[in-house]
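Exercise 7. Given the encoded structure of a 194-residue chain, write a plausible sequence.
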């Protein structure tokens, strides 16, 4: 049943959410190197756990569902019967609420497993937020993707290191004279000074 954006397998008006899981997933390239992050807090806002896992070369939506499954798994394994999930994936949130159908064959098994785990909880809520309100989970997802691609994130407050590659642009495509960039790297192209 749905009541103001919440799913209640066994609704109870006095039931209080015990833990909140902020989940995020990302993919560099979509599909590309993918990972998820989950930041879990108790009712007072104290951090209970931080999950961060690389899931391989997958889509962004696969990574988002992997984060949801990680949060559900934590709640069930740790004996929490009441879980609130906060995600910046509008697609996943609306699919879990039954507002969108799951048409992707890749996502269908993840969706079905999530619904099985949700059914085992006493109370479950899921809400969509903008990315800015999901910073902890976003950071954890990026750390997972960095680990999976062999990149180490820069120290807090320091600028990322820059490497120079020589190449040329032809027909709108960048061609490197030597080497190649790993997936998920952002580039800035500057004209060579003559």
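Solution.
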């Amino acid at each position: 049943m749905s009541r103001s954006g919440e799913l209640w397998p066994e609704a109870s008006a006095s039931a209080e959410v015990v833990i909140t899981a902020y989940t995020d997933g990302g993919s560099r390239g979509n599909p590309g190197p993918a990972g998820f992050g989950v930041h879990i807090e108790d009712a007072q806002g104290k951090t209970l756990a931080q999950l961060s896992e690389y899931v391989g070369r997958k889509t962004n939506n696969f990574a988002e569902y992997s984060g949801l499954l990680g949060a559900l798994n934590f709640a069930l394994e740790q004996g929490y019967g009441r879980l609130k999930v906060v995600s910046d994936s509008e697609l996943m949130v609306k699919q879990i609420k039954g507002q969108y159908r799951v048409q992707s064959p890749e996502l269908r098994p993840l969706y079905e497993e999530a619904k099985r785990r949700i059914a085992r909880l006493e109370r479950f809520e899921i809400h969509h937020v903008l990315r800015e309100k999901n910073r902890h989970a976003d950071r954890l997802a990026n750390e997972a993707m960095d680990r999976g691609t062999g990149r180490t994130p820069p120290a807090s407050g320091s600028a990322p290191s820059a490497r120079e590659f020589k190449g040329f642009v032809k027909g709108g495509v960048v061609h490197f004279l030597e080497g190649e960039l790993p997936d998920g790297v952002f580039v800035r192209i500057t004209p060579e000074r003559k």
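Remark. The domain at 7-148 is CATH 3.30.420.10 (Nucleotidyltransferase; domain 5). Students should compare their own answers with the one above.
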